[in-house]
Amino acid sequence: MRTLKPQDARRIGTLIERMSLTEKLGQLTMMAASHTVTGPQIAGHSTDDIRSGRIGNLLNLIGASAAREMQRLAVEESRLGIPLLIGLDVIHGHRTLFPTPLAEAALFDPDTWALTAREAAREAAADGINMAFAPMLDVSRDPRWGRTVEGPGESPWVGQWLAEAKVRGFQGADLAAADSLAAVAKHFCGYGAVTAGREYASVDVSDRTLLEVHMPAFAAAVRCEVAAVMPAFTDLAGIPMTAHAGMLRERLRRDLGFDGVLVSDYNAIAELIQHGVAADLIEAAALALEAGVDIDMVSGAYLKGLPVALERGLVSAAQVDEAVRRVLTLKARLGLFEDPYARGRVAQSAGAVAQRRRLAREVGARSIVLLSNRDNALPLPGATRRLALLGPLADAPAEMRGPWWCAAEPDAQVSVLEGMRAALPQAQILHASGVDIAGDDESGIAAAVELCDGADAALLCLGEAATMSGEAASRAHPGLPGRQRELAEAVLARAGARSIPVIAVLFCGRPLIVPWLAERASALLAAGFPGCEAGHALADILTGRLSPSGRTPITWPRAVGQIPLYFGQRSSGRPTDPIGPFASRYIDESNEPLFPFGHGLTYGRFTLANLRLSSQSATASDTVEVAVDVENRGGRRAQETVFLFARRLKSRVAPPVLELHGVGKITLDPGTRGILTLRLPVAQLHSLGPDLAPVLEPGAVEILVGPSADRGSLLAGRLEISA
Ligand code: BGC
Question: Active-site residue 265, yes or no?
Answer without folding.
Answer: yes
